[in-house]
Amino acid sequence: MVFTSHVFLFYFLPLVLGAYYLLPFRARTALIAVSSYVFYGWANPIWAVLMFFGSSVDYVCGVGLLKLSGLPDQPDGLPPVIDRRLPRTRKMKALLIVSIVTNLGLLAIFKYTGFVAENLNALAASLGAGPHAVPVLHVVLPVGISFYTFKAMSYAIDVYRGEARPMRRFTDYLCFEAFFPDLVAGPIIRYAALEEQMRVRRHTLDKFARGVAFFAFGMAKKILLANPMGHVADTAFAAGTLHAPDAWFGLVGYAFQIYFDFSGYSDMACGLALMMGFVLIQNFDSPYQSDSITDFWRRWHISLSTWLRDYLYIPLGGNRRGERRTYVNLMTVMLLGGLWHGASWNFVLWGAIHGSMLAFERAQGKASVYQRLPRAVRVALTFLVVCLSWVFFRAKTLGQAVAYIRALFGAGAAGVAADLPAGAMYTRLHVSVFILGALVVWGMPNTWAVTSRLSLPRAAGALALLAVSILVMWTQSVNPFLYFQF
Description:
69% of the residues lie in helices and 0% in strands. The protein is mainly alpha-helical. The protein is globular, with a radius of gyration of 23 Å.
């Protein structure tokens, strides 16, 4: 099910919210759990079965970790007893491994087996063993599996570390992992951040109103900005030949598309959560206003970058083991971050570009020549690097990415064929949305800032945008969010 669909907007959401506020507090988490499974299994019930299996393993491991810790089991409604100083036994470590292996195993089976098989076949072919030495399994990737896998892993790790206590009731855990607002495209919510809200949360009119505003702004980003820019990007990347200006227009269009699409989903997720009393974290903080790649990763997909920092970069040693090890850790984290997005060498290269830039900026230090440039220049250069890396993120193959890079710098073929995409890209609508997107990105505050003080004019503007977005939605074909594929 998609947020930007009439089934969700006019049937699913009103029914869930109505039932939510009619039920007593203790029954609401069960309602969210059941609703989330309906939401997730709407397109393919097998996906819901798969998630239920992983959740069952995680829940049992969490209960086992609690018993092995020796801490008292607190009744519902009371804050859990947490002791980070307790020793972690081998049995506790074994349960943690079972949970992590289960989650990563499911992710690997559905997301990476084909990639590994294709590369083994390529290697075998180069050695003369034939191109089909290893059978390639083509399985449908469950929507959002990368997101809820990381959520589940945070649960097991936080409980093992003693930073949170496991859920006593199975339905509570199902609610956490399957929470439909952030299920398929984030933000990636840590268990420790949501555990307390599962027990105690406030429901106020102000919070609900802010949730509606969040949802309205997110839907406007998706329908009014991301989808038109998606047409520009799709046209450019599907073209066999491009002039350099057209290639740049298509690339920046894609940069706008992925930002408005992904941040729009995050805004809608935060809004839906607020309507039910939950407060999620900010996932985007005007990332295209960053003045370095380091700054970019403090602002872009914040829930992923902080997850990788806390659960991968710091356990690898972070910056505590010398400069060389720090660079290795940065590169390792970004390469794995690239693979998290997709099983393709394009994503690996995308991660390598960002990892290299993070290491380079760290080596330069805060007193570098670059830091003495005017901030506007640094922002422009950072956006340029980000856009060039987006080529590998968007292109379907490495060959297409290389060809597009060549077109950006004037090495694309010219002639009548190169002029054909321009007619579909430079319509009045798409040029207008492109300009509006630039104004929003560099000239306006982000959704969190706008909704921090929800005045009457801002609330009215949000409702107007929601109405316009719904009307425009009926004129567009179903267009799932880009990050559903991850």
